[in-house]
From TrEMBL:
It comes from Nocardioides aromaticivorans. This is Cytosine deaminase. Residues 41-143, 196-389 form the Amidohydrolase-related domain. Transmembrane segments: none annotated. It comes from the Bacteria.
Amino acid sequence: MDAVVGDLELGDVLIDDGVIVEVGPLVSAAGAEVIDCAGKIVLPGFVNSHHHMFQTALRNYWSDALDMDYFLQSRTGEDALFHQYAPDDVYWGELGGALENLAAGTTTVVDTSQCSYTPEHTDAALEGIRRSGIRAVFSYSPVFGDHEVDDRYGHPDDIRRLLGVAGSDLIRLALGYHVDEDLFRLAKDLVLPVFAHVNDASFGRLLEEFEEDGLLGAHLTYIHCLGLDASTWQAIARTGGKVSASCIAEQTLAMGPPALNDAVDHGVTVGLGTDAVSIGPVDFFSQMRAAYALHRGGRAGVASSRGADVGPDGRLLSPRDILEMATIGGARAAQVDDLVGSLTPGKRADVLVLNGRALNAGPVLHAPGAVLNMDTSNVETVLVDGRTVKADGRLVGVDVRHVVDRLTESAEGLLARAGARSVVLTSCRAD
Ligand SMILES: [Zn+2]
């Protein structure tokens, strides 16, 4: 994924003190510890540019929801599910979610937290992320709904405290969560990235107004971007904004035509995201295949007869293009491409090793195609910042059963406190 290094059929990656030092066909380094990757595919770790990890205990609860089901049941009314979260629920959700991402080969995640009911909730989120060892951008965001806000609710001012205590080598801070003038101004003052949900064209028109006020820029990443006007796309492109597409979650909630092709046609950088695990899967193999199918589906008819005219650079996206969206594109959309997203000497060593000799992968005749059609069972080794977090297909030092037990307890408590019904064999939509 590095234009200078290129894609190597055979190669070595030398890492020292968490940094990629050299990448080439044959790197010699006397005394270095060797991870034998014969028959494997070595990639930069995936970058998930949109997630809400606190929701991990609510896995699949809204898998048949439409967007209003999700928004109403999650945050409207005193009995809404999100309002039941205690800091401990946030902690286990974030830890479990981060571990799930690492196990699936995702080494960086943008966590747009919507659960900062109190500073203690925020601290619990950050602690869960820290414990996992994942690289993260924590997008500090408001909570919504018609519930009574806690006395200690600190949004947005708590970001000033967090800037003093929460940043680290692996965690960067940002602001989220919707298109809001005050939030955009605060981000400009504090020189922070913004991850803003742009769920429909009306939010897009607001962005166009913000451009006139000088509030847009390359530090902004726009989430979803469904059905935007061409003029909004032009404003995003002009100001260097990035887009995060959560293809599966958006289509599961039936939010509208995907933004992927519009973004590509306007020359806007796209990264892939998963959105919440309460709606859909967070593994990037599923995300890449969905993006690829949606892209090609959107080109149907045109592609078959006039392929040369498709897209701004005259071609259809390839599996490698989609792989870029999952790695360096995601890093740009996560505003961390200075650190990760490619195996580039000087960048931090977030590295993924995939088994190409499994029944679902071998023989590897087309490497990007092989990756697109793998699944999490192929994720063998994962390094974050040069540290091995997954080896031989297992997370290092993690008691998975314990984590799932705590998430199960959390789910039971959340559903009980909300008075929400079980949907094990029914539906969140049934009434
Ligand atoms: Zn979201």
